[in-house]
Design brief:
The protein is mostly helical. It contains 16 helices and three strands.
């Protein structure tokens, strides 16, 4: 314990004097300003629909008005409908007519619409017309909600979990490499080999330092942007385990290089791979099996659940993080022992 505390204090002092810590502080301020003032709380992603009901009965127009659609979106001729869609390329025009007892709907739009979206539009238009036409109801279905409804997350706050996963938790991956290369340049590693310090205190001290820094970094990012009403035990445990995991991984990679120039290409490439789950975060339907194996995948969704609870059980997240942290430590111990703690390496 004495060796660990000595190394912990030494690393803490060295890191605090490193100029990169000012970069981290600056990045924190910028991130908070961006989340609070630049990212809107809500994006208006709804499509604009224009309607022209050419049927004799006017059923669709009647239903549209009943749903509160404004007059500017209900047009009086096909020419007006075409002009409206041309003037607003992102809009969709709905031309409705009926032939005998069957409704006919024509969709006007620019570009292509996926079959999924076409089916959604067809279902939305078909439902209000069922009372007026003899339409098939299709197979019966039932909706079952797995968890209670939760309040929608503002878009600016929704950006916080990815920032925590790719800015805060990976800080140890970067800083551990910087600290290791500084020690190599100063000959600290060579001097440490002749002491009774050992490999474990060396790794654990760095893991503890960057876990502590990551914890405070994360809390300082979350409190101004999300608020102070948080599940602190769950959040602290996730941040500490995640930071420790990436610190060990950072040492594993950095141990094979002599300076930051040699490490840079490989390190940046690994960080880019680590950021791939942001695609699944933005488009949840894209989650191939290979992307779920990247450690940041469960972390980013776990942090979202911690910050914006929906009732999901997080036990699997903590089991994963604990197991990954232990495995990364064992791998780090093996690599550091043979690459750094032996003379001539």
């Amino acid at each position: 314990m004495r060796r660990f505390l000595s190394l912990f204090m030494q690393d803490l002092v060295v890191v605090s004097r490193n100029a990169l810590m000012w970069v981290v502080v600056g990045a924190l301020v910028v991130i908070i300003m961006v989340v609070l003032f630049l990212i809107p709380a809500d994006y208006d992603l709804e499509d604009t629909y224009y309607f022209y009901d050419a049927s004799k009965t006017g059923y669709l127009e009647e239903e549209a008005r009943r749903d509160g659609l404004e007059d500017e979106f209900i047009l009086g001729s096909l020419e007006e409908l075409e002009e409206a869609v041309q003037a607003d390329p992102g809009s969709i025009g709905i031309y409705f007519s009926d032939s005998g007892e069957r409704p006919q709907i024509t969709i006007l739009h620019y570009g292509t619409i996926s079959e999924q979206n076409l089916n959604l539009i067809a279902a939305a238009l078909e439902e209000p017309l069922r009372p007026y036409y003899d339409l098939e109801t299709g197979d019966g279905y039932r909706v079952e909600y797995l968890r209670p409804f939760s309040a929608p997350v503002p878009q600016n706050q929704n950006a916080v979990p990815p920032l925590l996963a790719f800015e805060v938790i990976v800080l140890g991956f970067l800083m551990a490499a910087v600290l290791l290369f500084q020690e190599k340049a100063d000959g600290v590693n060579r001097a440490y080999r002749v002491t009774p310090g050992g490999t474990s205190p060396y790794i654990l001290a760095k893991g503890a330092v960057f876990s502590l820094i990551g914890l405070f970094y994360g809390l300082l990012m979350i409190m101004p942007t999300v608020g102070v009403s948080l599940n602190y035990p769950a959040l602290i445990l996730a941040l500490i385990l995640g930071c420790f995991l990436y610190t060990c991984l950072g040492l594993v990679v950095a141990a094979f290089f002599n300076n930051i120039s040699e490490w840079l290409f490989v390190g940046i490439a690994l960080l880019m791979v680590n950021m791939t789950p942001i695609i699944s975060y933005g488009w949840p339907s894209f989650s191939p099996a290979w992307i779920t194996y990247i450690p940041s995948y469960p972390i980013i969704f776990g942090l979202r659940e911690i910050l914006f609870p929906t009732g999901r059980d997080l036990t699997s997240l903590y089991i994963y993080l604990a197991a990954a942290a232990i495995l990364s430590y064992l791998l780090c111990h093996l690599v550091v022992h043979f690459k750094l703690m032996r003379e001539g390496r």
